[in-house]
From TrEMBL:
Organism: Bariatricus massiliensis
Residues engaged in binding substrate: K44, N68, A69, V70, G71, L72, N125, N190, T191
Cofactor entry: FMN
Gene coding for it: pyrD
Protein name per Swiss-Prot or TrEMBL: Dihydroorotate dehydrogenase
Reactions the enzyme catalyzes: (S)-dihydroorotate + A = orotate + AH2; (S)-dihydroorotate + NAD(+) = orotate + NADH + H(+)
Binding-site residues, FMN: S20, K44, G45, N98, N125, K163, I189, G215, G241, G242, G263, T264
């Protein structure tokens, strides 16, 4: 039985990675997770300069998940290259660097800086709902999404994964736009924009007013969007959104995802990624699948 997957020319040992921002850059989870067991580690978003993120409170629990408005707090590309890449290089896993920015120039600066670094893939976050300046502007307009993809591709030495926002009218149209811009793969979904009000304080729970909703509650929406995107484009899809078990991950793969990303579930079960890898293997054996690619998009 072969669990290997090929995403834009990069071979992962299995189809499981982690969602950016839920795993740091690996170090804080390395006590709980054997990083060698993951197909890839996707880092927290990194920008050209350090970002402080949004004011607190910026995390809240919601029914069936959570809401965050962290605002992509990160130490910036210099410290990231100095500290996080060498840490991850010690493990037998692919490294996907998530890149964030507030303008096309910001994104390109980070991508150009990473061209000489020993990392395997870049995930371009054009879909964060909590960053006022950039992110969502690129992530909701097909033309802007295509343009930012083209700009990044001019500087990128590694394959580029464009991370899509679910806060759009047509996810298929957005996937086609980034494919037209030269994206090597697409990842989806990022969080859905939500709001929570404390009825006793009569105030917003998050300082940012709105936040990104993630967790099991959004899983059926994510499966539908992965299916739509997979049937709209030819590039590989990395599916994410509320995956908390092997069953959730397999659902994404059958809908058309070549790989999956586990996010919010890491917070309440740090070992979840290893369970997902084992669960997919058991399912393949039980169902008689010889290779991962035989499962991808099987349900039409």
């Amino acid at each position: 039985m072969n669990m290997k997957v090929n995403i834009a020319g990069v071979e992962w040992k299995n189809p499981v990675t982690v969602a950016s921002g839920t795993f740091g850059s690996g170090a804080e989870f390395s006590e709980y997770v054997d990083l060698n067991k993951l197909g890839a580690v996707t880092t927290k978003g990194v920008a050209n300069i350090p970002w402080a993120g949004n004011p607190t409170p910026r995390v809240a629990e919601t029914y069936g998940g959570m809401m965050n408005a962290v605002g992509l707090q990160n130490p910036g590309i210099d410290l990231f290259c100095e500290r996080d890449i060498p840490f991850l290089k010690a493990y037998d896993t692919k490294i996907i660097v998530n890149v964030c920015g507030k303008s096309a120039e910001d994104y390109c600066e980070v991508v150009e800086r990473l061209a000489d670094e020993d990392v395997d893939m870049l995930e371009i976050n054009i879909s964060c709902p909590n960053v006022k300046e950039g992110g969502i502007a690129f992530g909701q307009n097909p033309q802007a999404a295509e343009e930012i993809t083209k700009a990044v591709k001019r500087y990128a030495k590694q394959p580029v994964i464009m991370k899509l926002s679910p806060n759009v009218t047509s996810i298929g149209e957005m996937a086609k736009a980034v494919e037209a811009g030269g994206a090597d793969a697409v990842s989806l979904i990022n969080t859905l924009t939500g709001m929570k009000i404390d009825i006793n304080r009569k105030a917003f729970v998050l300082a940012n007013k709105t936040g990104g909703v993630s967790g099991p509650a959004i899983h059926p929406i994510a499966v539908r969007m992965v299916y739509e995107a997979a049937n709209a484009v030819k590039v590989p899809i990395i599916g994410m959104g509320g995956i908390a078990s092997a069953e959730d991950a397999i659902e994404m793969i059958l809908a058309g995802a070549s790989a999956v990303s586990v996010g919010t579930a890491n917070f309440h079960n740090p070992a979840v990624t290893m369970e997902v890898v084992d669960g997919i293997a058991e399912y393949m054996e039980r169902q008689g699948f010889e290779q991962m690619k035989d499962m991808v998009g099987l349900v039409k």
